[in-house]
Design a protein that fits this description.
The structure is a single chain. The chain is α/β, with parallel strands linked by helices. Helix content is 25%, strand content 19%. Helix 2 crosses helix 9.
Length: 303
């Protein structure tokens, strides 16, 4: 996209491709240009562009890359960068179809928190809910921790205006589980975008991917929207067992009171986090989510 907001299809200079060939076993660590990057490019006679330089990123959102045969050594997982230079991540979930998944939400919160990216939570498809007790429980839980939570519906337009009022002047990325209505939500916010909308599989009750690559759209002079492919699962990249607790933000006030500096808040004696759970200062739901994620974290960072 140039300074006037015109979209220009660009390719990478040969020097980037040469680097990629040399480091092909770390393909996902060396994603040279991603959505949200600021780049320097020149326009060719045919109207296309070529990227000459990629500027330093202020932040980026990533996860462990899916396992792809031939691109990694045994047991290693590399980093897949989703987007860069972000102001706010809108974590899109659904009240139903698919069911609200707090474990997946907590994993995304960890990935965003480790990158220093502000995150708001959107619980979509509220029109499918008859009893609001369950949704209100999760809304209060995450708000009490410190996250902003929006309840939305693209059918009756609940909460659409509230979300839209938060977007101005920012680079906003929308990310979440497949089938939660992310593209429908974006179309409700900005009908001119006309993102493709998918359906829920009747067999699996899970979403089907409709967005296959991340796409950035400029919706006014200084506001940008990034739509991303839906995800089925996520593992945060580059976090140790000892680090993980710092990204469950309600753990932080208690961590420094643990008996051991290397406490993983699981089996160690004198753990202040476990004590906080027992005293009701940390919810059982979040602690169990933490333990579930802890089992997937390597002892050493994988970068």
């Amino acid at each position: 996209m140039d300074d006037n907001g015109n979209e220009i299809r660009c390719v990478l200079r040969g020097k980037f491709k040469k680097q990629l060939e040399i480091k092909k076993d770390k393909l996902y660590t060396y994603d040279f240009a991603v959505v949200g990057d600021f780049v320097e490019f020149e326009i060719l006679p045919d109207g296309s562009g070529v990227i000459n330089h990629i500027n330093t990123r202020k932040n980026y959102l990533s996860r462990k890359a899916p396992r792809i045969k031939g691109l990694m050594h045994k047991g290693e997982r590399y980093e897949q960068i989703i987007a860069a230079n972000l102001d706010v991540l809108y974590l899109i979930s659904s009240a139903d179809k698919p069911k609200f998944n707090n474990r997946l939400i907590d994993r995304i919160l960890v990935a965003a928190g480790s990158a220093g990216i502000k995150t708001d939570i959107v619980i979509n498809k509220m029109d499918l809910v008859d009893n609001f007790d369950g949704v209100n429980f999760w809304k209060k839980l995450y708000e009490d921790i410190g996250y902003k939570v929006f309840l939305t519906s693209t059918i009756n337009r609940t909460g659409i205006g509230l979300v839209k009022s938060e977007l101005s002047g920012k680079v906003n990325i929308f990310w979440g589980q497949s089938g939660v209505g992310k593209s429908s939500l974006l179309n409700s916010l900005f009908p001119e975008l006309n993102f493709k909308v998918g359906e829920i599989s009747k067999a699996s009750k899970k979403g089907r991917h409709t967005t296959v690559t991340s796409v950035m759209k400029k919706v006014d002079s200084n506001t940008f929207i990034i739509d991303t492919p839906g995800i089925r699962e996520i593992e945060p990249f580059g976090i140790t067992k000892q680090d993980l607790g710092h990204y469950f933000i309600e753990f932080v006030p208690f961590i420094h009171n643990c008996k051991f500096n290397s406490c993983t808040h699981y089996h160690e004696p004198g753990c202040a986090v476990v004590q906080a759970v027992e005293e009701g200062k940390i919810t059982v739901e979040r602690y169990e989510s933490y333990l579930s994620l802890l089992t997937t974290i390597e002892d050493e960072p994988n970068y």
